[in-house]
Write a structure and sequence with these properties.
637 residues, alpha/beta, Rossmann fold, 3 domains, six-stranded parallel sheet, binds 6-O-phosphono-beta-D-fructofuranose
Length: 637
């Protein structure tokens, strides 16, 4: 083939020969092949065009799909969020979000947003309302108003005063319990009835035939009605289901919960026993019943099925875990339905309320109203709210002051070899949730890393034995005792030991004296609903001095942000925090403590009770009687 002036020619040439083989000429056939190029180029151009068109079509398709499936819903979501921020969005998040989780999360976001805003408004309103501090007298007047002639009844497992034999003598002790610390001042202020388990060996001897007595001993302010439980009931209901099942289930401390069917049966029986005692005591009168804690989850429902007119509130003193953690409980739906008998369920933190609503959402056929933090089950509405619990002022308790206090502190210093020492204190029930092992280890590292504090500082740990029929609790005491021993052995000198581990029931006078004496208080819960020791320490620092080292996993950390917050699982961080607390200068100590004292004084236990009672009367008025024909295990005995 040759190219000639842009034309492609095919040439076929042959010699023409005669018979003897001599060449006579040449035969040449010329063929113009240009049309082939044109065709090839034409085809190439058409193919390129088709590819381009298909690509464009595919791109348009993909873009339209992306817009419809992703971008448009996300734009709508953004617009809805903007309106939510400006308080214009009253509707639910836009439907059809591309990722199911995004829909759920935006639902929750809206709910939390509204809850936070409502809380902000309530707080602003409360600030206006609470220029006057909440006192015992103010709560009494307020409660009379709310109750409008109804009785106030509290029901809990733990009783506020336990009578025990001690060297043949009867004595009344106040148990180491956050619940009692918080609720006793409320009952003392308002009067009323407290129904609780009579756990002391001298309890029966101090009551009338119905199990009643007036308390506090020697200063009758309200009635305590004791409920008697058999040994089997205590083992199954209290030690078993409540404290080997629900306690580790709700506290995320890597302690495996144990669920036994026999414990569950005892739990049901015991819950009926407490509810029956309440019903018996109130007769046909109207009442506000404040059910307390995880031991009595079924009581609200049992009460409501007999007396739908009662105003029933449940306060959960421990954390509420996320649904994934809670769902391992074999009787999860029964527990939830029992709780939903209440008109109002209270937790310490908004986060626990969110977890609770999430849990109900996944495990019970109830209608959820995230906007109002309410749940409808069989025409009965339960409202869910945070009520961070608190303490009363120490001046209202029978604790010494002035010279008497100085004498008591002097005696304690002498008895425990603390003269001339700076004291770091811890006050706890001996429980694996309190992070005591972590605390002892942090003290050890603090003395290792910062040897300048040796022979100048003593760590005093007051430990009240607790739930000692459970092996894990007994073992913890032994473990802590040997750890304290090991650390003391490692650092002790002739005149100094770094740790005093005082295992005993300590009365409030002793606790107060140690809190006053201490420069630093350690609260290292691995997980805790609130932790009232943190607030008690702050409330005790009348001179405005002292440093609180507080676990970020205790509910109290949300309010007491001026504490040195720590992750108790990090021994390094914890030890450094102790060092920082010991080295902090006076002006910083005062600023921090001042901020925390303001919070604890303003948000005291009287304000907590007032808020709870107001909310309970509001929501139960709105709730009505509902359908109380519940069909769950709470009916079985
Ligand atoms: O604060 C949680 C709580 O379980 C209270 O309900 C209880 O009173 C306290 O800890 C002490 O526990 P217990 O009553 O088992 O001694």
């Amino acid at each position: 083939m040759i190219g000639w002036e842009g034309v492609h020619l095919h040439i076929l040439a042959r010699h023409l020969q005669d018979e003897d083989g001599s060449v006579k000429g040449v035969l040449a056939v010329l063929h113009d092949a240009s049309y082939l190029d044109e065709r090839i180029n034409g085809r190439l151009a058409r193919s390129a065009f088709s590819v381009l068109m298909v690509t464009l079509l595919v791109l348009t398709g993909v873009m339209t799909l992306t817009w419809t499936v992703y971008e448009r819903p996300l734009h709508r979501l953004a617009e809805w969020m903007r309106r939510l921020r400006l308080e214009e969005a009253k509707d639910a998040p836009p439907p059809g979000l591309p990722i199911a989780d995004l829909g759920t999360e935006s639902d929750r976001l809206a709910a939390s947003f509204r809850a936070a805003r409502t809380k902000g408004r309530t707080e602003a309103h409360n600030v206006a309302r609470t220029e006057k501090a909440w006192t015992r007298e103010r709560l009494r007047a307020h409660a009379l108003d709310c109750l409008a002639g109804a009785q106030l009844v509290a029901v809990s497992n733990r009783e506020p005063y336990i009578h025990q034999f001690h060297n043949g003598e009867r004595r009344a002790i106040v148990p180491a319990s956050g619940l009692v610390t918080a609720l006793d001042p409320v009952l003392q202020a308002c009067g009323g009835l407290w129904v609780a388990h009579g756990a002391g060996d001298a309890d029966r001897e101090t009551t009338d035939r119905q199990g009643r007595l007036t308390v506090p001993p020697g200063d009758s302010r309200y009635t305590l009605r004791r409920v008697w439980l058999s040994r089997e009931e205590q083992l199954g209901y209290y030690y078993g289901f409540s404290n080997e099942g629900l306690w580790p289930l709700c506290h995320l401390t890597h302690e495996r919960p144990v669920f036994r069917a026999s414990d569950w049966q005892e739990y049901i029986k015991a819950n009926h026993r407490f509810a029956d005692a309440v019903l018996q005591e109130i007769g046909s009168t109207s009442a506000f019943v404040l059910v307390q804690d995880y031991h009595l989850a079924l009581v609200p429902q049992i009460l409501k099925s007999s007396r739908p007119d009662l105003k029933v509130g449940l306060f959960w003193h421990i954390p509420w875990p996320n649904p994934e953690a809670f769902r391992i409980c074999p009787w999860r739906a029964e527990i939830l339905r029992g709780m939903l008998g209440a008109d109002l369920v209270g937790f310490h933190l908004q986060q626990h309320c969110n977890n609770f609503l999430d849990t109900v959402d996944r495990m019970v056929q109830a209608r959820l109203d995230w906007d109002h933090f309410a749940l409808d089950l069989k025409k009965h509405t339960t409202h869910v709210r945070p009520f961070p619990i608190s303490v009363q002022d120490w001046s209202e308790r029978r604790v010494p002051s002035g010279d008497k206090l100085a004498r008591q502190m002097g005696e304690l210093r002498e008895r425990h070899d603390l003269e001339g020492m700076q004291v770091i204190v811890g006050v706890d029930r001996i429980d694996y949730t309190k992070g005591l092992i972590e605390r002892f280890r942090a003290v050890e590292l603090f003395l290792t890393k910062y040897p300048q504090h040796r022979e100048r500082v003593v760590f005093v740990q007051l430990g009240a034995p607790s739930r000692s029929h459970i092996r894990r609790y007994r073992e913890l005491i032994t473990e802590l005792e040997s750890l304290a021993d090991e650390i003391n052995w490692k650092f002790q000198t002739e005149d100094w030991k770094p740790i005093r581990f005082l295992v005993a029931h300590h009365d409030s006078q002793a606790v107060y004296a140690f809190l006053r004496m201490a420069s630093v208080c350690l609260v290292s819960s691995l997980h805790d609903g609130m932790n009232l020791v943190a607030k008690e320490f702050v409330a005790a620092q009348e001179d405005g001095d002292g440093v609180l080292v507080l676990s970020e996993f205790a509910g109290a950390a949300r309010e007491l942000a001026d504490a040195i917050l720590i992750n108790p699982y990090s021994t390094e961080e914890f030890a450094d925090a102790i060092h920082r607390a010991m080295e902090m200068d006076l002006s910083e100590r005062r600023v921090r403590m001042g901020g925390m004292r303001k919070i604890v004084t303003e948000r005291n236990i009287y304000r907590w009770a007032a808020d709870f009672l107001v909310k309970l009367s509001e929501v139960s008025d709105r709730t009505g009687k509902g359908d109380t024909s519940y069909e769950t295990v709470a009916g079985k005995r």
